[in-house]
From TrEMBL:
It holds the Pfam family YjgF_endoribonc. Signal peptide: none annotated. Residues 9-151 form the Endoribonuclease L-PSP/chorismate mutase-like domain. This is Endoribonuclease L-PSP/chorismate mutase-like domain-containing protein. InterPro entries: Endoribo_LPSP/chorism_mut-like (IPR013813), RutC-like_sf (IPR035959).
Length: 155
């Protein structure tokens, strides 16, 4: 497959990959195994801070959480880029999204659409993926969302 120019697409969208977020526990941001890259769960850090914290459906609106999922996905892409280079991505295979939400909130898929739609904007058909959108009681540092990505890369 011909190498893509996803870095240029980021620029066209007015997006910049952030520095890779430092791990908050005993793990690395991404691991390559063969032609696959698995990211650790990425929080929606912006300049080392979480712009919004709390549960979706209480302290955090669905719109804020959608934006946070976009940010977390961008952070995951940055981890892939740091490890193997964004232009070596051949396919976004899977996205797992976790939404810290109230017991009565059922909009987790809409929140994680923030990540999925961003991947579509950047990668087009290469960004079409399988996905899970899961509601959880709490996430690290009281983050409202966490996103992990599995990507197939060129050899």
């Amino acid at each position: 497959m011909a190498q893509q120019n996803f870095r240029q697409r980021l620029e066209e969208l007015g997006l910049q990959l952030p520095p890779v977020a430092a791990p908050v526990a005993a793990y690395v941001p991404a691991v390559r195994s063969g032609n696959m890259v698995y990211t650790s769960g990425q929080l929606p850090f912006v300049d080392g801070q979480l712009p919004v914290t709390g549960l979706v459906g209480a302290e955090v609106t669905e719109e804020q959480a959608y934006d946070a999922a976009r940010t977390a996905a961008l952070n995951a892409i940055a981890a892939i880029d740091d490890l193997v280079g964004i232009d070596n991505i051949e396919r976004i295979v899977k996205v797992n999204g976790f939404v810290a939400s109230t017991a009565d909130f059922g909009g987790q898929p809409g929140v994680i659409n923030g990540a999925s739609e961003l991947l579509g904007e950047i990668f087009g058909e290469t960004g079409v993926h399988a996905r899970a959108a899961v509601g959880v009681a709490a996430l690290p540092l009281n983050a409202p969302v966490e996103v992990e990505i599995v990507a197939q890369i060129s050899a």
